[in-house]
Design goal:
The complex is a heterodimer. Chain A is mainly alpha-helical. Helix content of chain A is 66%, strand content 1%. The termini of chain B are far apart. The chains are: A mainly alpha, B alpha+beta.
Chain lengths: 396, 227
């Protein structure tokens, strides 16, 4: 990194800053100081993004339904997140009398911790990852999976039928969609040959002419991207997969019995999970911090990462504004009868791609296989079976 | 094909999203305190008392007959009848309410008080902004707060107010005619009596006392009749 090259300087400004701060400390402490600074960065940037996103979501959803959205607090409602925050902090923290106090208290903490851990391996810019792990992807999904534990803790400890129902739904849904989520990322691992997230991004950071080498621009990458998006939506309990917290059915699902700041922690954790899953989708399929065109590499890499994440978030909001909630059986059918088999076919296609060598032929073959699979499975797998009249058997 | 409907739906919401920034007609929200829609003429919220003329207390049409108080289903009207009398809209001396309270937190806007009032004294208002931080005193409206001029009534319900005024004018005219007829009859009777008295006087010198009938009550001049 030369100090004279302005784009590179701006690109690495946070790294430079960290090194500059760290050099005031004795050399034994320098790695710790750098890590702490990174952690501070993560726990300040992403909750800040959360505040902006909540506002944008409410505004955007309003516009999709031909409403104004919040526009009372400050100019254009810009201070709405502040008002929401004050409200959440000043509310009474009610714990049900029969709740399991310790578990009830720990659930939001564990959820938030697990969600924050995922950010540790996300490369938010060139050289900007807190931990450069060789098995970063595995770590990320391990942390993502451990959030299910806290969801179930919350539902179980509340001693409330709605909480428990929500938790059961959440666990069933998250485990069902965890499988395609992991399998789609296996496709990326097969293409890259590495579980390290920085290396996955670097594999996509090249350009042919001005066009980037993102995995989403390959047939199986595109298919995997769509499936990953579906599974990610289900993982983060976003509409149309918001059965665990469907307010019209089970109040707020597993966090029904939480109020005040604990409720806010669940809320934050949900949005942070959305950011981290958007970040991992960006890293796996959309080239992470890589610029979309070769002539745009002068723009700092961290800008591209956050721009892509926000695009992802916008699609999440857009889907929430459009799609109605699924039924439980539809949810399970979709996961096990469509997303999972399609992802398995996609895995096979990735193998074919790998062994067919360069050339236009593999593009045609892989695309045709995937389109045919999509059409056939969409026709057959998703056919609604007529239900027979319900019959009851009684004990004799 | 699988996913077709989803794309269609997404396009629809995208159209809404972009369209709401372009055309104002899409945004149907009325931003209430700043903008408000005109209420329809028949809108009704809580009752008020109509008065004629410039002063509210002498002009009150209410005669404290207490029919509304008895008919009110949630019993939100409280009336105290006066001991003395004052001329009412038709000019007859009548009682008036020394206390007329409506608890608008109890009122259910049924309009029965308006239906039963024989004097067109209580009508429905369009005023709905009674928000207050004193939920007992602030929502118990006394007769001064309830009294609103006939002109105001004409503003909020013009058609109905005209009907009422025509009816009241007719009543007043009928009352005046009746009074006039009574006066004439009295005068004729007095004349006859006088003639008889004169005749009798011609026969007997004792003079009969002049039959001084009380003057017929004049129709009030302060009425907003026909305004």
């Amino acid at each position: 990194m030369s100090g004279t090259n302005l784009p590179a300087t701006v690109d690495q400004i946070f790294i430079t800053f960290t090194h500059w701060v760290a050099h005031f400390f004795p050399s034994a402490f320098q790695p710790i100081v750098a890590d702490v600074l990174g952690v501070i960065g993560i726990i300040s940037v992403f909750p800040g993004l959360f505040a902006i996103t909540v506002l944008l979501e409410r505004k955007g959803l309003g516009r999709m339904q031909n409403r104004y959205g919040p526009n009372r607090v400050g100019p254009w409602g810009l201070f709405q997140p502040v008002a929401d925050g004050i409200k959440a902090l000043t509310k009474e923290d009610v714990v049900p009398f029969h709740a399991d106090n310790v578990v009830h208290f720990l659930a939001p903490l564990i959820l938030l911790t697990a969600v924050f851990m995922g950010f540790a391996v996300l490369p938010v810019g060139h050289h900007m990852e807190l931990m450069n792990m060789d098995a970063g992807l595995l770590f990320f999904f391990a942390m993502g999976a451990s959030s299910e534990l806290s969801v179930f803790m919350a539902g179980w400890s509340s001693r409330n039928k709605y909480s428990l129902l929500g938790a059961m739904r959440a666990v069933a849904q998250m485990i069902s969609y965890e499988v395609p989520l992991l399998l789609t990322s296996v496709i990326v691992v097969m293409l890259t040959g590495s579980l390290s997230l920085p290396r996955i991004v670097e594999a996509q950071a090249g350009y042919s002419g001005i066009l980037p080498h993102w995995y989403v621009f390959t047939p199986m990458g595109f298919a995997a991207f769509i499936m990953f998006g579906i599974a990610a939506t289900a993982e983060t309990n976003r509409s149309p997969f918001d059965l665990p917290e469907g307010e019209s059915e089970i109040i707020a699902g597993y966090f029904t019995e939480y109020s005040g700041f604990k409720f806010a922690m669940f809320f934050i954790a949900e949005y942070l999970a959305m950011f981290s899953i958007s970040g991992i989708a960006t890293t796996l399929f959309l080239g992470g911090w890589a610029a979309p065109f070769s002539f745009l590499t002068v723009v700092p890499s961290w800008f591209w990462f956050f721009a892509k994440v926000m695009c992802f978030i916008f699609v999440f909001i857009w889907m929430r504004g459009t799609l109605p909630r699924l039924r439980q059986d539809q949810l399970m059918n979709f996961a096990w009868k469509f997303v999972l088999p399609f992802t398995l076919v996609d895995l096979v296609v990735t193998g074919i791609w790998r062994f067919m060598g360069e050339g236009i032929l593999r593009w045609i073959v892989c695309s045709l296989i995937l389109i045919a699979t999509y059409l056939i499975m969409g026709r057959t797998g998703m056919v609604r079976k007529p239900f027979a009249p319900r019959s009851y058997r009684y004990a004799e | 094909m699988l996913g077709e409907g989803i794309i269609k739906g997404m396009l629809e919401t995208a159209r809404n999203f972009a369209g709401s920034y372009v055309s104002k007609e899409r945004l149907i929200t009325v931003q209430y305190p700043e903008e408000r829609e005109a209420l329809p003429e028949n809108a009704r919220v809580f009752p008020f008392l109509v008065y004629d003329g410039p002063e509210w207390l002498p002009g009150l049409r209410c005669v404290a007959c207490q029919i509304c108080e008895k008919e009110c289903p949630p019993k939100c009207i409280y009336i105290d009848k006066s001991a003395d009398k004052k001329p009412d809209a038709a000019g007859k001396p009548q009682n008036y309410p020394t206390r007329f309270d409506i608890d608008v937190s109890v009122c259910m806007s049924c309009q029965i008080c308006v239906e039963v009032c024989p004097f067109d004294a209580i009508k429905m208002d369009k005023q709905f902004e009674y928000s207050t931080d004193d939920r007992f005193g602030g929502l118990l409206l006394d007769r001064e707060k309830l009294a609103k001029s006939n002109e105001y009534y004409h503003q909020i319900h013009p058609v109905e107010a005209n009907e009422v005024d025509t009816r009241l004018a007719e009543e007043r005219a009928a009352a005046a005619a009746k009074a006039k007829a009574a006066a004439e009859a009295a005068a004729a009777k007095a004349a006859a009596a006088k003639a008889a008295a004169e005749k009798a006087a011609a026969e007997t010198p004792a003079a009969a006392p002049a039959a001084e009938k009380p003057a017929a009550p004049k129709p009030p001049t302060s009425g907003g009749g026909g305004a």
